[in-house]
Design a protein that fits this description.
By secondary structure, this protein is of the alpha/beta class. Helices cover 46% and strands 16% of the residues. Helix 3 crosses helix 4 and helix 11 packs across helix 14.
């Protein structure tokens, strides 16, 4: 197959970007010709070269960027693309517009967030031009169906974790030393600090936890420089001082998760299934997450982790304290979580499902 993945951004250290990279690399390893289209980015150029896939760049400043629409039309012709998988709203719009002007390969759209679907987005998903919509969890599929997208058109394909990279044998000792942590320190980690990821609730939970867990430390990962300073200010305002640690974008996420005693996610909007929770379970680390959207599809409360209501710092603090006070039970849930990831949320499972979907759509279309 000759496949184009459209990712209309230049960021690389995000869950969505990593999923595109892993998908492209995995498909290429299975013998397919894969092209990844992004905004200009040295990170993407290097990663695609290492992954053995073709990298192309277009400005993609907006969905109506005519130069990018025309550039995409040329790319489709030059690379003889059979199937386009468009990620993000801008990628969807550019792919639809390019199809009006030139080649019309099979088009697959990706839906990885649970925000409300507006009228324009709904039109993009329901047009006959789109062969399938990939939803990253059943919860998002239900939302799409409720907006008028045909259920038969939606394929649920869970985002996948590379279980050879994320596993229980990863050594987190170097990260703990970097952070100045001793053997008795209890590290609570949240990866991702957008507002809707609930970082303020995590800080409030830490404030409640601190008197009962004097050696607990909180680590945020993935903060942009302005957010790093802001989180420090918020921590000091709550009297947490140096008990809150903040890191920017990192490549050593497996080691960071392995260094953690519990990984949390306090998202209250937007999420499908948070990647860091999936990756933490792959590393057999205990998890506490909010019961929003697709998270219960991964975290079975009391079996593979602990779920709490969103926007409830008291419940979050109590769940974290439960991990601290009963590490044997927490570790048993984490081991069960690893098995669940291997069975349903691994990169291999995602590649199998995506490849099968692509083949089915191309077979239904017939010869070009």
């Amino acid at each position: 197959m000759r496949v184009l993945q459209i990712y209309p951004k230049h960021d690389y250290f995000t869950g969505a970007a990593m999923q595109v990279t892993d998908l492209a690399r995995g498909l290429a390893a299975r013998g397919h010709h894969v092209v990844v289209l992004t905004r200009p980015s040295p990170h993407w150029e290097g990663e695609c070269a290492r992954a053995g896939v073709v990298h192309r760049e277009l400005p993609m400043r907006s969905g109506a960027d005519l130069a990018s629409v025309l550039g995409l039309r040329r790319l489709l012709r030059d690379e003889r693309i059979e199937l386009v998988h468009a990620h993000k709203g801008r990628g969807r719009t550019l792919a639809l517009l390019a199809g009006l002007l030139g080649p019309r390969p099979v088009l697959v759209l990706n839906r990885g967030v649970s925000f409300p679907v507006d009228r324009w987005t709904r039109l993009g998903y329901t047009t006959r031009r789109v062969g399938a919509v990939v939803a990253v969890c059943e919860s998002i599929k239900r939302r799409l169906v409720a907006t008028g997208v045909q259920a038969a058109k939606i394929e649920v394909v869970y985002s996948g974790t590379d279980t050879e990279r994320f596993h229980a044998g990863v050594d987190g000792g170097g990260v703990r030393r970097e952070l100045g942590l001793g053997a008795g320190d209890f590290l609570v980690t949240q990866v991702g600090v957008r507002s809707w990821r609930g970082f303020a609730d995590v800080l409030e939970a830490m404030t409640r936890l601190a008197p009962r867990a004097p050696r607990a430390r909180l680590l945020f990962v993935g903060a942009a420089p302005p957010r790093i300073a802001a989180l420090g200010d918020l921590a000091r305002a709550r009297g947490l001082g140096d008990r809150v640690l903040v890191l920017g974008s990192r490549r050593d996420v497996p080691q960071i998760l392995a260094a953690s005693d519990v990984v949390v996610d306090a998202s209250y909007a937007g999420a499908g299934i948070t990647g860091s929770i999936r990756e933490a379970l792959a590393c057999e680390r205990p998890v506490v997450a909010t019961a929003v959207e697709g998270m219960p599809e991964l975290v079975r409360d009391g079996e593979t982790g602990v779920l709490v209501p969103p926007r409830d710092p008291a419940a979050l603090a109590a769940a974290i304290l439960g991990v601290l006070e009963d590490p044997t039970r927490a570790q048993a849930m984490a081991r069960a979580g690893r098995k669940r990831v291997e069975a349903h949320f691994s990169l291999r499972v995602k590649l199998d499902a995506t490849e099968a979907l692509y083949r089915r759509l191309l077979a239904a279309r017939g010869p070009a």
